[in-house]
Amino acid sequence: MKKVLCLYVVFQFFLFGGSCSNNDVVVTDKESDVFSNLNLSILDEEINPSLVIHEGVISQKADTFRIVRKGKTIAVVLLSEPIRVAQANQVEKWGYFQFPKIFRAENGYLIVKWQMKDDSHIVFGIDNYGRLASKDEGATWDAINFDYFEKEQYRVEKKTGDILQVKEPTSKNIKDYNSFPLPVNDEPILNYDFYRESELPEDLRGVYFEYRDKLLGKTKLVHASLNDPGYLRYAIDNLMPMVWRGDIKELNDGSLVAGVYPCLYQNSEGKVLRSAVSFYKSVDNGINWNIIGKIPYGGDEYDTYIFDGSVGWNEPTFEILDDGTYICVMRNYNWNVPMHKSFSRDMGKTWSIPEPFTPNGVKPKLLLLDNGVLILTSGRPGVQLRLCVEGDGAVWTEPIDMMPFIDKEGKYKSNRESCGYTDIIPVDDHTMYMVYSDFLTEDKNGEYRKSILFRKIEVIKAI
Fold it and tell me: pTM for the complete prediction?
């Protein structure tokens, strides 16, 4: 098993322990100390990853890890002390005081929000969140006392500074419509009924976006259309959510690409299949979206994976790598099974058969730092941070775990320690901020209460 670490300075020839040339690079004391400190913990780099759920290295304080390959430190990872953004003042049930998100407001301050509602389609689109802001890059968090534009999770911030973000409406009761098409399934599947999107009433078709014009400081609602023959929407007990969730990227020519779920279709026999991840492109600033490619659940045997309540691929995240390759990481239908990765080398049209590469994980988040390091966060059980130093998605480090989740008997604790959802944003070419939930932080009385935690993570790469 290889070993890995990251740096922010460009070095020539050998970092240490080798012969010197006349072109030695002078580094700061901090950088020199980090790279020459052989006592720092080493983070393994996996060639053939274990798909058995296990803990990696645990970090619950300020830590530095070396990533070493063939005896050389190739990078270091510096994690700040976890900072508590907020803590519940009472026992909260599932769905409350979790699922954190982070963004930078237009005035430069950081804002973290967390859900305070049930984890259910019934409350989709309803704004019920806790929120705090930081004016000092995460050191302290206070109530928001300024006007700001709320950034949603599924958005693209364009080179112009304009923002296009999915604005999910509340679920609609299909019984409220005077007429409604028949479902494509003969009888409900675990309370699900499925409908061809192209046959639905106009307000239940397409995708709703919010468009923020930075120059004018104005926001408008956009009802975009989808061109995806065979695309299905679902209703649960007659309630129909309009779910279209995933990353959106801006290409060099200004066009937009989105990789989203749930994307449900029928096979040749009319059976509803488990969800694919579908990729769409818009050339008119998000007004119209055309299907360009899919990652079907089950690969070559897609037609045999009938929807049975197991959703299929969901919660995808994708990045565009430095060579133009697209990488997509997806949660499987459950949380205690491997996450998968898939690649496209033709801008999202065709995709490799998904391969498992982590033993567990929900809500993966990818971020390609400007120094070329690819970051992956996910969780459940626990919360994990993984790094791909080459930035190609091939070889990843063992996880840095934000908390332990294996008990004394060697069993993992399910979701008792965290919801497992994370959010990350870049700060500069080698730094990012991360937020996550920890259900086992103690309050002043020593009682466990859910908390939202914030960390600064630097990845300093040696090249």
Answer: 0.91
